[in-house]
Amino acid sequence: MEFTKMQGLGNDYVYVNCFKEKIENPSEMAVKVSDRHFGIGSDGLILIKPSEVADFEMEMYNADGSRGEMCGNGIRCVAKYVYDYGLTDKTSISVETLGGIKYLDLTVEHGKVTLVKVDMGTPILKPELIPIVAKGETVIDEPIMVGGKEYHMTGVSMGNPHDVVFMDDIKNLEIEKIGPLFENHERFPNRINTEFVNVIDRHTAQMRVWERGSGETLACGTGACAVTVACILNGLTENTVTVKLLGGDLQIEWDREKNTVYMTGPAEVSFDGVWKEK
């Protein structure tokens, strides 16, 4: 199986061109290739496939083999792959995901994609659609007991579920302990991605993320979008925010008039290779 290892701000996946390759059991394959000691090493597996409703389809799997709806860093890498590897010559493309069809604009320099702007769509705030077990119409600054301590969360779906928790000190957060408790909390029927956020100023926020099925990752594009929406809903920032992740920065804008979130960031190829099944 030919593959390409790619990363967006350190959020790395193994990409397979399914115009040429056929993966019989992608969930099982995701677990194998993601292993950082015995596999290729990644946060998961992303298949680039033909689509009947868009230019391409992105089918993604987390490192534990579970299927994911969307990945903001992953979809930027899909855009770079299809252009750089000659699957398209268009600089505006559409990509089908389980979280809906996404529209991407590509910045090309010297024949290679350097930057991708993604129309991430409308943020979903209704608890039953995220899903989060809650009584109100939205989940904004709502208390939740986790590990015997009360936190306050804001729930947002960007095609996949997020809860955003604001706090002053995220650097010393024991995320490997608290992350799984949030992920598997009874209020999250489909598990959850949790962003722990420190707001620096009206235009800047810093975050760490615990992704369901993968653990802490260096970046999460949909998470950065959810963070921006949560910041605005809580009156903490303006509508355009630089979100600082462990792997780098993303520029996120929530256009309130269109009710659409835009994400702009890089995508890079790490290496190409061939996986030989043992």
TrEMBL record:
Q: Any idea which GO molecular function terms this record carries?
A: diaminopimelate epimerase activity
Instruction: Tell me which Pfam families the record gives.
Output: DAP_epimerase (PF01678)
Task: Write out the pathway annotation from the protein's UniProt entry.
Answer: Amino-acid biosynthesis; L-lysine biosynthesis via DAP pathway; DL-2,6-diaminopimelate from LL-2,6-diaminopimelate: step 1/1
Which key words tag this protein in UniProt? Amino-acid biosynthesis, Cytoplasm, Isomerase, Lysine biosynthesis
The protein's site described by Could be important to modulate the pK values of the two catalytic cysteine residues is found at H162, E211
Q: Per the annotation, which location comes first and is thus the protein's main one?
A: cytoplasm
Task: Quote the catalytic residue positions.
Answer: C71, C220
Q: What domain of life? A: Bacteria
Query: EC number(s) for this protein?
Result: 5.1.1.7
The catalytic activity, as recorded, is: (2S,6S)-2,6-diaminopimelate = meso-2,6-diaminopimelate
As recorded in UniProt, coiled-coil segments are: none
Query: Cell membrane among the record's keywords?
Result: no
The residues that hold substrate are N11, N62, G72, N73, N160, N193, E211, R212, G221, T222
Instruction: Give the subcellular location.
Output: Cytoplasm
Kindly indicate whether the keyword Metal-binding belongs to this entry. Answer: no
Assembly and binders: Homodimer.
Q: Which family does it belong to?
A: Belongs to the diaminopimelate epimerase family.
According to its UniProt entry, the function of this protein is described as: Catalyzes the stereoinversion of LL-2,6-diaminopimelate (L,L-DAP) to meso-diaminopimelate (meso-DAP), a precursor of L-lysine and an essential component of the bacterial peptidoglycan.
Question: What is the protein name given in its UniProt record?
Answer: Diaminopimelate epimerase
Q: Which organism is it from?
A: Ruminococcus hominis
